[in-house]
């Protein structure tokens, strides 16, 4: 089973003071997979893991994504020391910014899940998964968690919720239809609510198919929108396979 950080901690992280454009890279959450076992310092698994990260460090990461392994034919390999690494950066954090987030995430994994063969860690600008099991193209339903702002909208909550739902539906289609080579399954948008604006984004890991991305995003919007988000001014759902976020302030680079 995956270990989970207390929800109250995640919520407190979300409502930290932010600038009008969130260009920070705050740590958000991690999950240490205890079912895949552990490795020891200097072991073959650790050497393979370090080699995979070295290989990633030489990539351009122009689209902010890679899924790497220490063997080529990893679909059929029975190597007990095989390593798989997923790196998916936020759609506005590619290239050098993605590399920077990877470096931060690697240090975070070593600190929070030392010796785990399987683990996931989330920061504002990326998610990194290490695994001894091939998870490419799979929707990891067991990895999702949500974070919400403690503050509610002050007026016309029903209009706010309806506008948010409409924006989510538009981004769901956009993320899986309007695919760019730069950042793949990624969509951002905004809508006006009275004098204010609501901003949102949706993204899938690039190892998913278009249909897989749609299924993943549809699942998290259906599960979290009405109950968990309700009247909250901001919220997120993050997972290994897809994510969404909305706020009443701009939070992405332009």
UniProtKB/TrEMBL annotation:
<feature type="domain" description="Gnk2-homologous">
    <location>
        <begin position="27"/>
        <end position="135"/>
    </location>
</feature>
<feature type="domain" description="Gnk2-homologous">
    <location>
        <begin position="141"/>
        <end position="251"/>
    </location>
</feature>
<keyword id="KW-0732">Signal</keyword>
<feature type="signal peptide">
    <location>
        <begin position="1"/>
        <end position="20"/>
    </location>
</feature>
<dbReference type="Pfam" id="PF01657">
    <property type="entry name" value="Stress-antifung"/>
</dbReference>
<dbReference type="InterPro" id="IPR002902">
    <property type="entry name" value="GNK2"/>
</dbReference>
<protein>
    <submittedName>
        <fullName>Gnk2-homologous domain</fullName>
    </submittedName>
</protein>
<dbReference type="InterPro" id="IPR050581">
    <property type="entry name" value="CRR_secretory_protein"/>
</dbReference>
